[in-house]
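S1.2 Input.
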Amino acid sequence: MTRDQAIEFVDAVRRAGTELVLGLRKLEHGKPDDVADWQLAVADVMGEMQDRLLEPVFTIHPDTRPKELGGPR
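S1.3 Output.
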């Protein structure tokens, strides 16, 4: 994976995470009885995305870590 590919991949994963959070907020607004289950599911997925997708990229290309995640970019 090149640095440019890493940046594109990191950005794509982060966009997916943003979409999950936005979807969850819409769900929470409707206040379904099972909202806590959905909150936990999204939290699990977000953690997996960080651990299994982003961190390996940051190991290869540490300079691609965004500022929001403690990096230089």
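S1.4 Remarks. The chain has a mean pLDDT of 94.
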